[in-house]
Amino acid sequence: MSYQKRTDVSRETFSAPEDRSAGTPCAHESSAVDAATMEAELAAFKDPKLARGLIDSIQKLAPAGGATLMEVCGTHTVAIARNGIRNLMPEGIRLASGPGCPVCVTSNRDIDTVIALARTDNVTIATFGDMTRVPGSTSSLLKEQAAGRSVQIVYSPLDALARAQQNPDREIVFVGVGFETTTPLVAMAIKRAAAAGLENFTVFGAHKNMPGALEAIINDPKLKLDALILPGHVSTIIGAEPYRFLAEKYGIPGVITGFEPVDVLQGIAMIMRQLHEGRAEIEIAYARGVMPQGNPVAMAAIDEVFETCTALWRGLGEIPGSGYRIREKFAQFDAVRRFQPNIEPTQDPKGCRCGDVLRGIMAPNECPLFRRVCTPENPVGPCMVSSEGSCAAYYRYY
């Protein structure tokens, strides 16, 4: 299978920028030229004229019988909502949001485990901000913080590592949530902790990989997908190869897409062309960010520290091979192994339909709790908490 990087829809628009570095008199001028070139290139991906041309192509190529496309990236979820792209689709073309938000797909059991760790003596939880507001069975990290537990927001696992070095008398537990995009940096933090002989740094690992979830979605009897808008950020790490099975095994086209309005529309137009021509391939529309082979160095870092395992996804259940756990070699940095927290019986929030939203079988505004009981100020489930959640995007933009 070939990985096409451009189509006739916008071949000239997305050609690589000319290399202007040769002959520049000094470094700062070269940097200024490069910055200006980059700014001009990025501006093209917001050009209304180009967007209109792509919308026309989508209209012409759309199957008469309609089609359901699913995006599986939280940033795409927000981009589609913010730019009104769903409303620009031809009749019968449905854009469904899938399990692309890492906070949203984190199971209640995992949330309850983190809360149990927060209640452990001498433990400080270091976490990304969204995770503090996700409700577990009976509490949240924000509530635990209000009750006097030590919960700190960090922006990187390396921040958590630094806090462990600065506070040798505290146990720092980093909450590792995310897909292949963030997992390499967590692997780096663990390797640095091992090299430094750090004994007060651990990770609660709830990392997941995207291909396993996609196969589960495709096999869901309640959902019929015709194509996938594939994630840009994840694909910078894993490349295009792990998606090959979508086309070869299931006949599902997929296009790796960027995040600007023209990016998303180009990806949809490429999918429409595949459907129109009866093809099923994995194509790359986001050529400025994704190589077919991905980032081998980042993947090697993941493989050194983590191994694949069965993971529990909100809405999808247990999926074999879809998670990452810390290898035995680095077991001393596994927070659950070290502290063995006492986890309360898990209960899903009453009436919450996040699982159905994440599977793409329900739009957020079809949930009875949406805007009535469940709001960003009073979230019932994680899809309303995360900035990349489908419910939060619908609440803000629809």
From TrEMBL:
Pfam families: HypD. Gene3D superfamilies: 6.10.20.100, HypD, alpha/beta domain 1. InterPro entries: Hyd_form_HypD (IPR002780), HypD_1 (IPR042243), HypD_2_sf (IPR042244). Residues 1-26 are annotated as: Disordered. GO terms for biological process: protein maturation. Signal peptide: none annotated. Keywords: Iron, Metal-binding. Residues 1-21 have a biased composition (Basic and acidic residues). One of its GO terms (molecular function) is iron ion binding. The keyword Metal-binding applies. PANTHER family: HYDROGENASE MATURATION FACTOR HYPD, HYDROGENASE PROTEIN ASSEMBLY PROTEIN HYPD. NCBIfam families: hypD (TIGR00075). Belongs to the HypD family. This is Hydrogenase formation protein HypD.
